[in-house]
Every structure is written in structure tokens, then in C-alpha cells.
Amino acid sequence: MVPSRQEQHFIDHPRLPFLTLRSTFNSGLAYKTHQHETVSLGVVLEGTTRSTINGSEYHLQAGDMVLIPPHCAHACNPKTGHRSYHMLYIDQQWCVEVLNANPDQMVFTTKQHVLRDATLFASLKAWLDDFSNPQYDDLTPLTAIIQHAGDLTPASPRHLDRITQSEQSIQALAAEQGMSQEGFIRAIKRQTGLSPLALRHNQRIELAKQFIAQGMPLIEVALLVGYQDQSQFHKHFVHFTAATPKQYQGRLTSPPTTTRKS
């Protein structure tokens, strides 16, 4: 494993509550396969990385952008050395509305995952570099990306609550469906890109992020999402986010003290 000199910030825009920016520098850390409730837009600033999205592998370098729909299984691992990037988490409803559709009827997807367009990249990077400025809320650079690469598909129920919210074993859940444990695991992985157990932990961490953003103490958050052991909560949080709960708790609403320029 490449030692990491990682520096990162989570930034909430004071006037755009449907956006959260994660800026990460000099990171050699890898991510387990995971998914988000939000749309994710990555911007590679330095280095190279290997991204796997729904089983397809993409090799990314500085100047590339990657757009990932909600509930889409993905992972990101540096190819060599370290990489720096912005990752913007965007409320799905806003993206659907940008595409002039009803969020109750349609969900956001993409025409393409990887974008290589120097003009769009430069515009978006300049916008993200000034993201925490409360006076700077022009959404034109982001809207251009969503309109360029975004797409829509009819909404459909996912029927996964029994897995993500239940404390039952995977074997017991499989038996409820009249399936073997192995067959159940294969079926869920085909549907979501994650094993049932990974999906359960992933959803717990996504819920934990919401509670942390509301200001709840970390001990309470861990218990609320189903972890009696703080060390287990910490381990899974890092595995799915490459950040500690404490780092995520330190989300910023003002500019970070370190200013970086390309």
C-alpha cells in the first residue's frame, strides 16, 4: 500500500444545501465498492486513478471528470502514487429537475460516466475552487455538466429495505425468499453490485453521514445506525468513505485554511 499524506475537507455551501464538496489532496487511499444516495461528480486534479463503475473499469487522469448516478456500485483506487481530486455530492432531485422532469416519476442516470472535455473541466474546476464563497452561487458550470452527460430513467421500487434495515442474518433473509444463501447473495449482487452484507453496511454509513450532518454526537450516531462497537463503526466508515467519522464531522461551512492552486 502506498503511504498517504492525505489532506481533505468536506465543504457545505451556505446557500446551496443540496451540494456537498469533498476536496482530497495527496491521497493514496483506496475505496471499497460502495454506492451513494446522491449523484457523485468527480474531478481529477492530479495523478492517475482506476475507477470501477458497475463492473466496468476506467483509467482516469488529471483533467478527467466522472459522473456516477445514485445507487450505482463503484470503487476508486490510485494506479500509482497519490492523486488529488474534488468529489461533489449532488441531491438527485435537483439533477432530475435540471433535466426538466418530475423526481417522483424519474430517476437520474448518465449517458456516459467519464467526461473528457477541457472547456467543461476548466469551468467546473474554477467554480469548485471558489465553492465555499457564499456570494458565488452561479450554478451554470454544474448545470452544463448535468445537461451534457445526464439522462433519466423511470423510477422503480428497489425492495431492499429488508436487507439494509433488518438485523437478521443473510442466511435467514435468503430462507425468507426460498433461496439458498449463495443464490441470494448472487441475486443481490447482480441487482446492486454489492453483496447483501456490504449493502447493509453501506446503507448504515450513508445514514450515519446524514445524522452527523445534523450535528449528532458520533457515539449516538453509531448506535442509531446499528453499531454497538465504536471500532466497528469507525472501520466501516473508513472503508466506505476513506474518511474517519471525526473528519466527516468537521465538515466546513467556511473556506479551508489551506488554499491550493493548480
From TrEMBL:
Transmembrane segments: none annotated. InterPro entries: AraC-bd, AraC_XylS_family_regulators, Homeodomain-like_sf, HTH-like, HTH_AraC, HTH_AraC-typ_CS, RmlC-like_jellyroll. The keyword Transcription regulation applies. PANTHER family: HTH-TYPE TRANSCRIPTIONAL ACTIVATOR RHAS-RELATED. This is AraC family transcriptional regulator. GO terms for molecular function: DNA-binding transcription factor activity; sequence-specific DNA binding. Keywords: Activator, DNA-binding, Transcription, Transcription regulation.
